[in-house]
Amino acid sequence: RWRLLIVGGGPGAGMHLHADHPPASAWHVQLRGRKAWTLCPPNQTRGGGCLEATLGPRDQLFFPRGWRHATATLDAGSASASRLLVTPPDAPLFGAAVQDHCTRGLALSRGSYEVLCAALAPCLRRLMAGQWTQDGLDSQRADSARILA
Question: What distances in angstroms separate CA 34 from CA 12, 15, 78, one per listed residue?
Fold first, then answer.
């Protein structure tokens, strides 16, 4: 199942230079208007080695895990769709980052993350162990449904 993040904004809206956390590759499609992008390889800041691009309607962009990126919306009524992509080689790192977020969230929130983190636990164990199969994902869905019920 695909879950997309739809983002809209006016001129000047955007995001500072950052790398996504948890670490994952990302795919974006510009739906309406234009958005300026700066993409920098891991451990690179603005300047040499970074790429600049402007996406218009139907333009797509992919960047791998660890790439830093910044955006700026150029037109009123702009909209884009984004999707994180967790590939099998990245699954253990992604799982560990989400597990760390759950651990710290539980400590800070006095338990409000408890149900969510319990539902994610079987999936995170499989991700961190490199068990990335459709059977494993189907089993995880069943485990999470029982916990959340």
Answer: 11, 14, 6
- Beta bridge partners, 5, equal 82
Residue at 39: amino acid letter:
L
Cis peptide before 11 (omega within 30 of 0): no
Inform me whether the pLDDT recorded for 110 exceeds 70: no
Geometric angle at alpha carbon 125, from 119 and 126, rounded to 5°: 105
Cα–Cα distance measured from residue 56 to residue 29, given in angstroms and rounded to the nearest whole number: 9
Q: What predicted TM-score, i.e. pTM, was given to this entire model? A: 0.67
CA distance 131 to 124: 10
Which backbone phi and psi does 18 adopt, to 5 degrees? -155, 165
Phi, psi of 59 (to 5 degrees): -75, 145
Handedness of CA 58, 52, 65, 49 (dihedral sign): positive
Q: CA geometry: angle at 14 spanning 86 and 44, to 5°? A: 60
- Structure-model confidence comparison of residues 32 and 93, the more confident one: 32
